[in-house]
Write a structure and sequence with these properties.
The complex is a heterodimer of chains A (about 350) and B (about 575). With about 350 residues, chain A is α/β, with parallel strands linked by helices. Helices cover about 30% and strands about 20% of the residues of chain A. In chain A, helix 1 crosses helix 4. Chain B has about 575 residues and is of the alpha/beta class. In chain B, the strands form 5 sheets. In chain B, strands 3-2-1-4-9 form a 5-stranded mixed sheet, sandwiched between helices. The chains are: A alpha/beta (about 350), B alpha/beta (about 575). At the A-B interface, helix 5, strand 9, strand 10 and helix 6 of A face helix 13, helix 16 and helix 17 of B.
């Protein structure tokens, strides 16, 4: 088959897939019922943050404060049947619009249908940050420049999407040793990460990079690394109505949004999502999630963690690095300023 | 202070041409700042700005005497910007005949030093035109490829809105050799559009009898605001200082770098008069500047700022060598440095000298790993299960991305990396290493025989293994014999090493640690008794051992003198 025909077919195929995902998103809106809809107060240039969560009450105050401080103007959150007070607490926040659903997390493609719907409905024209409540965006210069500075620069550079890979953070010693308190900076406890053990492959179909590795891959998936969780993420996108997230925030359609990397040797600007999953709250959560079986690939991840953590104790090794700031991440080559001087 | 400024007014008076297209409140503040210092200001507001914002701007400037300029719709890269500047300059010079200098600024240009210091500076350089003006034939001023072609091609299409047409039309003109004639007497020059000219020069440019002809010509030059005044000033000026008083730089996309609050000290240290472009949200900068210098006579010195911006441009274009990450994933052979630092690959040597790793670590100070690409696991130095950069010793993880594995290892090791390699290992990186200028490959061919000799396996298994390993070795050597090799390769045969093990090791040591490190006891060579017999047996079983070196030499070296019997002479292999 000639190359142009192949490309043409791929284009049609991806287009059909994108429309399919959009359709799912629109259909899934029926499951969502608004608890607090403050979307009318979203200003034209507001930066939005979207998240799906379930029973994350203890994490929420710090999560919201951290991202408010970065410069998020409004949060759009889907609550998937929390029963620990998350919903009530969120509904009382002035800059949160909250929807709730009891539908299956798994059936909604792990929450992405709901998120795609909210993006479709409210995201157009805005910079949208899609994260989980245990993910914290770090970008170059984030100590001294607000998120708005970044999005303005991305706008002026005609860049539509910003890559921020997931960086798993963990404590030294057993995960449950230091209990996490509400409102606390989780990275006071989980302050370590793996500096340079990430495998990168290119996904030809969608054009994105497939990044795996980190502590989870080496501790739990050493024999079967193909199944290790993907760490590549593109959480910050200047949304337009026809965009759609395909699988978590790992990749998007149209395909061009996934080209967040340079192939000619240069560096594009990128950040990380610090992943505060491995805190004292994790053991309970993994037990619960294993029972619910609502997570990716039959919650295999949780199963592995549950067993692994009981046998192994902790992720820490002498090569682990303690997190300092974005400059350290840049020196290690995990993020880059690109030409954002 | 005010009185001081007025006294200077009698000698020097500045006119300011201000071009704004957004953030008008800020522009109003800056215009007032200029006006308060005694300068005459003319403001051009883009025609696309909303009426209420423009009204607010003029309201805010009431009493400053700022002149409005007929509004045009300005698009980047077109003549409209030059036309607006010309209008504004004309209006200024007509309204104030006492002006001595005219400077161009934008709505997001921030004065770093008080206007009075600028005036004093200009007074010390009477008659100088501060305008960056570089001959267009001297390449390297503009970043985006087009230099003199800006002057010789037609540019009727918008670069931003009609990019495809723009590119096609440029290609078409190149192919058919269509060229515009440059008006006689003009020598194309390029430079920053933020300049400061003397009123005399500017009047001469405006009143040039051939101005109509020049304007018609520049209408279809690309980005004329970077060439119109820069070219014409060469006709009229007596003394051109080819530099801009505005600290500003363009990136590879042709948009100016933006300054933020964290650049405050950098900008202050530059002692520049004006900086562009300032992020509208950089409240810290707007509050801090303009600030009087400790010594008002300090010369502008933008070199440090330029170095920072230059580093950013290089990072974006070339990146850090040997780095593979989420936003830098170079395609094959576009890596600009496949790896970050030199490293040593000991091919076959580990099979000959069991203590090689310790010796390398001791005498050359390198991080000596075992067989990093062994099939069962990555053998890190000291048998660690987690290597530099927290790399896992798991072969499965390594084999997902072996190139990334090696590059990460080299990037995260403080010492020079060395590792053992043999044809038994995974061979995926052969091309990568051979074409990497950082690779130091020390190759002993045929050394793979020794582990087989000592394996104690049944001969059938040895034969099968030997066939497989030899195939891998020949494939590797084919690569080393190709013309694409960029690594530094040293090759010996098994016979060479057995003949002079100390010499080979010495060569390696001198290569890796030329400054004569500590003398260390040499690792001992493995026992080679029975090698020739095994080779003969393999040959008789139908497998011709190759690249072992001179066969007679090998036989002489490995067979005790008493056992030397008349063996049939084979060809040297």
């Amino acid at each position: 088959m000639p190359r142009w025909l192949k490309r043409f077919r791929r284009r049609l195929r991806l287009r059909a897939r994108r429309q399919g995902y959009l359709l799912r998103a629109i259909r899934s809106s029926r499951c969502l019922s608004a608890v607090a809809d403050r979307t009318r107060s979203i200003a034209p240039r507001a930066i939005l943050c979207l998240a799906t969560l379930r029973n994350e009450r203890i994490r929420l105050p710090y999560f919201l404060d951290y991202h408010r401080h970065l410069g998020i103007d409004h949060f759009l959150i889907v609550d998937n049947g929390s029963d620990d007070g998350s919903r009530e607490w969120l509904a009382a926040q002035p800059d949160v619009s909250l929807w709730t659903t009891t539908a299956s997390y798994r059936e909604s493609r792990f929450g992405m249908d709901w998120i795609n719907w909210l993006l479709f409905r409210h995201g157009t024209g805005h910079w949208c940050l899609t994260v989980d409540p245990d993910e914290f965006l770090v970008y170059p210069h984030c100590g001294s420049r607000p998120l708005r500075a970044l999005t303005d620069w991305l706008d002026s550079s005609a860049i539509r999407s910003f890559s921020a890979m997931l960086l798993d953070m963990y404590p030294q010693g057993p995960i449950a040793a230091q209990p996490y308190a509400e409102g606390q900076d989780p990275f006071e406890i989980a302050s370590w990460f793996d500096p340079a053990n990430y495998t990168i492959r290119k996904n030809g179909e969608y054009g994105n990079l497939w990044i795996q590795g980190g502590p989870r891959a080496r501790a739990f998936f050493a024999d079967d690394p193909v199944r290790a969780p993907a760490l590549n993420k593109i959480p910050l996108v200047r949304w337009r109505r026809h965009y759609v997230y395909v699988s978590s925030t790992h990749m998007l359609l149209p395909r061009g949004l996934n080209l967040v990397y340079d192939e000619n040797g240069g560096e594009k600007a990128s950040g990380v999502l610090l992943h505060a999953k491995f805190l004292s709250t994790f053991a309970e959560k993994s037990a619960e999630e294993m029972q619910r079986g609502q997570h990716y690939a039959d919650s295999r991840e949780y199963l592995a963690y549950h067993q692994g953590l009981q046998d192994q104790g902790d992720f820490w090794c002498p090569q682990s690095q303690r997190y300092r700031d974005w400059r350290q991440l840049e020196d290690l080559g995990l993020i880059s300023r690109g030409n954002w001087a | 202070m005010r009185g001081d400024g007025r006294r200077q007014d009698r000698i020097m008076r500045l006119g300011v041409v201000m071009l704004c297209h957004d953030n008008l409140p800020l522009a109003a503040r800056l215009a007032r700042l200029w006006a308060d210092s005694g300068a005459a200001v003319a403001i051009h507001v883009d025609a696309r700005c909303g009426a209420p914002a423009v009204a607010a701007l003029w309201e805010g400037l009431a009493g400053t005497g700022a002149l409005p300029v007929p509004r045009r719709s300005c698009e980047w890269g077109t003549f409209s910007l030059v036309a607006a500047t010309l209008d504004a300059a004309q209006a200024l010079l007509a309204a104030h005949d006492d002006l001595t200098h005219v400077i161009t600024v934008s709505g997001s240009c921030l004065p770093l030093r008080p206007p009075a210091e600028l005036l004093a500076w200009l007074a010390r350089h009477p008659g100088c035109d501060f305008i960056e003006s570089v001959n267009a034939l001297d390449v390297g001023w503009s970043v985006g490829g087009l230099n003199e072609e800006r002057f010789t091609l037609h540019f009727p299409f918008s670069f931003r809105r009609q990019r495809r047409l723009f590119d096609r039309y440029v290609q078409l003109q190149r192919r058919f050799g269509i060229r515009r004639r440059i008006p006689e007497g003009l020598v194309p020059h390029l430079g920053s559009q933020w300049w400061c000219l003397t009123a005399t020069t500017l009047r001469a440019i405006l009143a040039d009898p051939r101005r109509g002809e020049f304007d018609r010509y520049f209408r279809y030059v690309w980005i004329p605001d970077e060439s119109y005044f820069q070219t014409l000033v060469r006709r009229h000026s007596l003394q051109v200082e080819s530099r801009s008083l505005t600290v500003s730089k363009f990136d590879t996309q042709g948009k100016p770098y933006v300054f933020y609050d964290d650049h405050r000290d950098l900008l202050a240290a530059s002692h520049g008069f004006i900086a562009r472009k300032i992020w509208p949200g950089a409240a810290g900068l707007y509050a801090h500047f303009p600030r009087p210098s400790q010594d008002p006579a300090t010369e502008p010195d933008p070199e440090r700022v330029e170095a920072v911006l230059e580093a950013a441009a290089i990072r974006r274009q070339l990146g850090r060598p040997g780095l593979y990450m989420q936003s830098r994933f170079p395609a094959k052979d576009r890596e600009n440095g496949k790896t970050a630092a030199p490293y040593a690959v000991m091919y076959g040597l580990g099979d000959l000298f069991p203590g090689l790793g310790d010796w390398l670590a001791a005498c050359a100070g390198i991080a000596a790993h075992g067989h990093l690409f062994a099939r069962d696991e990555a053998e890190f130095a000291d048998g660690a299960s987690i290597g530099p950069g927290a790399l896992s010793a798991s072969a499965a993880i390594r084999d997902l991305d072996p190139q990334g594995f090696l590059a990460s290892l080299i990037r995260s090791s403080p010492d020079v990396v060395g590792f053992l390699y043999s044809p038994r290992d995974r061979q995926e990186l052969n091309w990568f290493m051979a074409t990497d200028p950082n690779a130091r490959l020390y190759v002993v061919t045929g050394a793979w025989m020794l582990p087989l000799l000592h394996s104690g396996m049944p001969f059938d298994d040895v034969r099968r293994m030997a066939a497989r390993i030899q195939r891998a070795e020949i494939a590797f050597l084919d690569i080393l014999d190709s013309v694409w090799v960029k690594g530094r390769v040293r090759r010996w045969t098994l016979a060479d090493v057995i003949a002079d093990p100390a010499g080979v090791l010495e060569t390696i040591r001198l290569d890796l640690a030329p400054d004569n490190g500590p003398a260390c006891p040499l690792p001992s060579l493995r026992d080679v008794t029975g090698l020739v017999a095994l080779l003969r047996r393999l040959r008789n079983a139908g497998l011709r051992p190759r690249r072992m070196g001179d066969h007679r030499k090998l036989r002489a070296l490995t067979t005790p003198p008493a056992a030397q019997t008349a063996t049939p002479k084979g060809p040297a292999t």
